[in-house]
Amino acid sequence: MKKFQCVLTVTILLVLSVVFLSCPTNIDPETVYVEVDSSDWLGTAPGITDAQITGTKTADIVIVGAGVAGVATARSAAEEGATVLVIEQTPGITFRGLCFGAFNSDYQKSLGQMLSEADKMEVVRQMQKISGNRANMALWTRWVNESGDAFNWFINAFSPSGPEYGYYLEMWPLPESFDNSTEYYPQFQSSIAFGTLFVNKWGDAVTAQYDKSVAEGAEYLFETTGKELVLRDDGVVIGVYAQQKDGSYIKVLANKAVVLATGDYGNNEKMVKVLNPEFYEALNYGLTNIPTSTGEGHRMAVWAGARMEPAPHAHMSHSFAGGFGGIGSTVALHLNLQGKRFMNEDVPGQIFTNQLLRQPGHTSFQVFDSTWPAQILKQSVGHGNLDLSNGFDPAAIEVTLAAALENDGTNLMAPLGANTIDELIAKMYPNDTATQNTAKAAIARYNELAEAGFDADFGCRADRLFPVKTGPFYASRSMVAAGVTTAGVMVDERLRVLNAESLTPIPGLWAVGNVAGGRYSIDYPTTSPATSHGTAITFGRAIGQETAAYTRP
Q1: What is the CA radius of gyration of the chain?
Q2: Is 519 within 8 Å of 355 (Cβ atoms)?
Q3: pLDDT at residue 150 above 90?
Q4: By C-alpha distance, which of 250, 82, 127, 183 is closest to 464?
């Protein structure tokens, strides 16, 4: 079965506040709220009519998109006894990533790693804080409370139980030096990461959900693309017009509900440019290579009367600083392409990426010396750092760094190494004396701050300032990886799509995964890892249960 990677979604809406002064004005007070013209990215609905239809299908629940969220919804609804029909534009189910973020699952319980009610609410509060209080807090509360049961349900389709089947508690046990209460960016390590240690285990797990859904009676129409929602005259959603591989149209009617699970819009140039220009720049003025990330679900919903969630739209574009060197996002000195230090290095991977996007070439060098093993043991447990209990292999890193000494600088995708700082800097910035001098001065300044025990320049914690003094010396290139957009149409806490004017649910229409808004704003938070798939599957299960019992007006 051919499988593509999916991505997250979100869109934009801008509120313009008009301040009325005592001077005359022709502005009507009724139009103080102004929505930005969306025609550049939205376009016009295709206006498909029954006269164009070559066939009709009917099911209780119609799901558009067979990604992680869509498959979870299909399995759940089918298990509840509903007839289910899934429309997918590719030849098979689609997925990407590796993880399922959850709290208080049976597996965590077996390890004695459970969050109290107060702890769970603190996770929600931290997620909300990172979004600038823009996210839908009710969604995060629901995820924290329901994700454990959803994880148990997810695993049961894949394997009996236990870590031998490929899942483990991320960053557990924690380094003895780590105290979450003292972290500027706290990390709640009760979140499960599934399958990251085993080749194809995540794919096996998602495929198992698909197999279970089919066994329960769900039907899939592959190479069929949802193009427009079918509405009754009163605005109730009753189905989907879909286009088949040969270009013909079919009408897929839903007795109960339509669920959009179509992924993000990262491969739609008009949408990315207008709605998430930072993401467009993150990809060096290009698009993702994920053909399913076209924003079709967003546009279908808006054409049917939905509203895109307001800006700013977050995106997920991880750099995993230093990944090419094999030591993760350690709190090591970072120099940009101008030879300058530019940030507090003691941050999680996504937050680091946000700063990297504002540097020349969207890249930097992670600079460290031969004392790196001790540094790793004192690092924070941020997103992108080494997992000391599962993935830390000093011997393998030693091999990588030994090869770095032989790298003459022509291969910037591999670590650089040298016996002296001057030699290393020459490899980092070849034929650029001015930048080499800047870098040398930056390293000297950093070493002074480390010795003083106070970072007067960028505020890195004193116990995570690691001098670059003991050779050999190394530099590892950090770059931004192509990611996904993470915004969508506005939904309520039950994932029902909301009407643009009244912000009340559009009867018969739900959204889940990257096409659903409300989860992220400003940033993809790494307070808890794997929340994208964690919410997609948790909410997919919940939607399947709800829509199966739903009676459409």
Answers
A1: 25
A2: no
A3: yes
A4: 183
